[in-house]
Write a structure and sequence with these properties.
411 residues, alpha/beta, Lyase, Ornithine Decarboxylase, Chain A, domain 1, TIM Barrel, 2 domains, 8-stranded parallel barrel, 29% helix, globular
Length: 411
């Protein structure tokens, strides 16, 4: 979204204020052209020919978005059987989907086997269970490399105390199970965290997986996860994916020569592909002056965008209605019966009741982490494709909140 002649415009010259009038607020809007730009940028950064991008769909599983990435040619990284089912419905073939759950029950794995998707195992007890039930089904193994990386403790998942993956120090145990039970390991996987800036973190992780890979002679792919940092502020820094692509392509090519054949290199970006493509629009319901603070209250809260409260995440906020007014200092808050502060002491063009404010970088983990807290419905979603806006999820209603509830009548 850009300022053009003093007014904010989305892709194709679409007026965001008109979308808010048509579909109401709060409103999520996604720009397909930015998603494609990010995908093309990542693909072009790698010279290694057998590169494969799997969209980490936990970031945003709207069916239209899944269908769009399927048409771009990505695979899919799924962390629940429901994501697998959505991916299949969106048109992904089973072999294009890698199912990587955490602490899922055996019956969920059984359903993944029935659906025919690729399966990633991240715990020794599940590996032992696998040999009892599905010995002939090939698997991928998720390794915890003991690398602490990520922009927040809640999104750092490769450290020594993480619940994710099998510790690199447990590799001898893994090898005993694989060899004694005759398991077929077709892939190795790791993921260290999110918002990782340092390219060397990925290269260190790759070296660890290369060492492990030498123990498995029949691999088809190595999956290095993702976690690329995207810019949140106008002058913010981001992961240099071009540098990563250059260095990792060279190193992966060299490893494959040592290994004896070219393996598929998989990356699993989620936020990198959709974060900058998304916006959350909300209406100012009240401007409230206290003794020391001017609050801008919105018709949304952490029930719709929890990242600032959960991760301390920064989201750029602009006044879409009056972008040229003189800036004032505001604390932007939501309408929850909790402390749901989006921003403190933020400089924004003067806001009055009824103005529409926009949150940038709302494409990843925005709607997906939304809830019905305070019994408020979740927002509608609009997908902009080839310069035209399409409603791809209607706003919830009270009937939706009641749809799964059963009346209690045994008084």
């Amino acid at each position: 979204m850009e300022l053009i002649d003093g007014k904010y415009r989305l892709c194709g010259g679409i007026d965001p204020l008109e979308l808010c009038r048509q579909y109401g607020t709060p409103l999520y809007v996604y720009d397909a052209s930015i998603m494609e730009r990010q995908y093309r940028r990542l693909i072009s950064a790698f010279s290694y020919p057998k590169i494969r991008i799997h969209y980490a769909c936990k970031a945003l599983t709207n069916l239209a978005v899944l269908q769009f990435f399927q048409r771009l040619g990505t695979g899919l990284d799924c962390v629940s059987i429901q994501e697998v089912q959505l991916g299949l419905k969106a048109g992904f073939s089973p072999e294009e989907i890698l199912y990587t759950p955490n602490f899922a029950a055996l019956d969920e794995y059984a359903e993944a086997v029935r659906l025919g998707v690729r399966i990633n195992i991240d715990a020794i007890p599940m590996l032992e269970n696998w040999s009892l039930h599905y010995r002939d089904i090939p698997i991928c193994i998720r390794i915890n490399p003991h690398i602490k990386a990520g922009g927040h403790d809640n999104i750092s998942v490769g450290h020594v105390d993480s619940k994710f993956g099998i510790s690199i120090h447990q590799l001898p145990h893994v090898l005993r199970i694989v060899e004694s039970q005759g398991l077929h390991v077709e892939g190795l996987h790791m993921h260290t965290g999110s918002d990782i800036l340092d390219v060397d973190v990925f290269l260190r992780g790759a070296e660890i997986l290369f060492e492990v890979a030498r123990k498995f002679p029949d691999l088809q792919f190595i999956d290095l996860g993702s976690g690329f940092k995207v810019p949140y502020k106008p002058d913010d820094i981001e992961t240099d994916v071009e540098e990563l692509g250059l260095k990792l392509s060279q190193r992966f090519e060299a490893f494959c020569q040592e290994y004896g054949r070219k393996l598929k290199l998989i990356l699993e970006p989620g936020k990198f592909l959709v974060s900058e493509a998304g916006y959350l629009f909300a209406r100012c319901t009240l401007v409230k002056q206290t003794t020391s603070t001017v609050f801008v209250g919105l018709d949304t809260g952490f029930n719709h965008l929890i990242r600032p409260m959960f991760y301390g995440a920064y989201h750029r906020i602009v006044n879409v209605t009056e972008p040229n007014f003189k800036p004032r200092i505001y604390t932007v808050v939501g309408n929850m019966c909790e402390t749901d502060t989006f921003a403190v002491d933020r400089r924004i063009p003067e806001v009055v009741e009824g103005d529409i404010l926009a949150f940038f970088n709302a494409g990843a983990y925005g709607w997906m982490m939304a809830s019905n807290y305070n019994s408020r419905p979740r927002p509608a979603e609009v997908f902009i494709y080839k310069g035209k806006a399409h409603l791809v999820r209607r706003r919830e209603t009270l009937d939706d909140l009641l749809a799964t509830q059963l009346p209690f009548e045994d008084w």
